[in-house]
Amino acid sequence: MKKTYILAFFLGLGVLGGCASHQSLDELPPMPAAEPSVDDVNLANGMDEPDPVEDSTPAAENDDLWVRLRAGYGLDLSVDNDRIRVQRDWYARHPQYFKRVTTRSERYLHYIVEQAEARDMPLELALLPVVESAFDPFAYSHGRAAGPWQFIPSTGDYFGLHRTWWEDQRRDILKSTNAALDYLQKLSNRFDGDWLLALASYNAGGGTVSRAIRANERAGRPTDFWNLNLPRETTAYVPKLLAIAQIVQAPESYGVSLHPIRNEPYFAKVDTGGQIDLAQAAKLADISVEELYLLNPSYNRWATAPDGPHQLLVPADRAELFSTRLAELPKDQRMQWARYEIRPGDNLGSIARRYRTTPEVLRSINHLKSNTIIAGRTLLIPGPAASSDSYSLSADARLADKQDRKRAGRQRVNYTVQSGDTLWEIARSHKVGVKELAKWNNMAPGDSLSIGQSLAIWTKGSKAASPAVTRNDSNMVRKVRYAVRNGDSLYAIADRFNVSVNDIRSWNSTVASKRYLQPGQRLTLYVDIRQTF
Q1: Number of H helices, E strands in the chain
Q2: Range list of β-strands (E), 316-392
Q3: Which of 49, 132, 233, 291 does the annotation list as catalytic?
Q4: Which domain holds residue 364?
Q5: Which residue in 270, 272, 358 sits closest to 320, CA to CA?
Q6: Catalytic residue check, 320
Q7: Are 131 and 78 in a shared domain?
Q8: How many domains does one find in the chain?
Q9: pTM, two decimal places
Q10: How far is C-alpha 63 from the chain's CA centre?
């Protein structure tokens, strides 16, 4: 069954922010532009994906985050040239895209605005994740950039955004936001407070912008952003942000609707005091696991990282409940552990593969100094407390969703990576492109392969799955009355019955006005039985 989660890459809307080396911020290489994917087209055309539940209640002016954002504008938005108009016209032609991206921003935007305000930065910068990632915290580009602010690995390392088997802090909402604002502030200082040059440098690298300035100085030409000879991608990058800011300033002028966002924190930070299973934490907070992952997208697995920091973001109105229940939960029930007795012939690598973990994790948890293990002794192995389906936005689940997504006119081939393989050679032997092969497997073309890794390859062939039958065939559509169960979310229900979240909302008028579903609540669904049962 097809699963639809927030996995859309950013519609050519900008690229890889933060592109510094470990040694210096001066020599930052220009990065390749992100390319549109099927997900991008779906998003632009208004196809479904999980968003915060719509709250159509109009907010008073002092309760409206968009009013606060506009009040903090600091860039010159009176500039109007062809480069800005091209970008603005695209957004105006795709109002549903703009509405959905601003809806997705609801979880994160208040925090970003708050942090930018505290630094006295122009609040247009709070809209930069629209350009970078369309506010998708799981966005991953073919240039190896990840998270809402699209940090590449080296720049993430420079700003202390660690990457481990357990988590990727480039996706951490708090850490990546503060790193991005730190970076932008450094770049602004470098260019004497010129924010357009800072933005161009965030995209192309400070060294690239400085060289373009020096070239213009030698030629006696102006050195402002609009007159520099910069990479093509960067010449569109800054106009995109200005176009977005202009639309947010006067959305009605462009036929665009902004998702209403209250001027209050969406989430609160709770100290967990140690590692905890995410399904267990979601249950304590009385929210879906999907919601917990979307607030804590840095976590790759079923649990928080054992080394900390030991904290979780939860919806602000659930923080007190979560804290109370967490304090009452015995510490030995926060995680599930398996005890494995080592057998003759075992090695740490084979045990790690059997339990879908890594030798490094086993060494750390069991305080081993090397990979040497002794038969008869016991290893402590962490595992999920719930079924794998419960962790729908873990790295493994997102990869499976990406690999399983059907491609019209193609059939899937599963390939196991062998010693000496490269992505290029695998792509060539199966007559597919390297970029598309990487995209099917949530990778970038430059990512390394590991022996035993499973790749999904969608080859062209007559045996490919035929297109799904549309739901408009009324002879096969049945009306279903569904009672909401504990742990249900709109996205889980939509996935179970192979319908869209937007469908469920349109069939049930009360859903749009509530943030959470309640156990026992009745929903009306129209289900194509050929696709579900």
Answers
A1: 22, 8
A2: 336-341, 378-383
A3: 132
A4: 336-384
A5: 270
A6: no
A7: yes
A8: 5
A9: 0.71
A10: 27
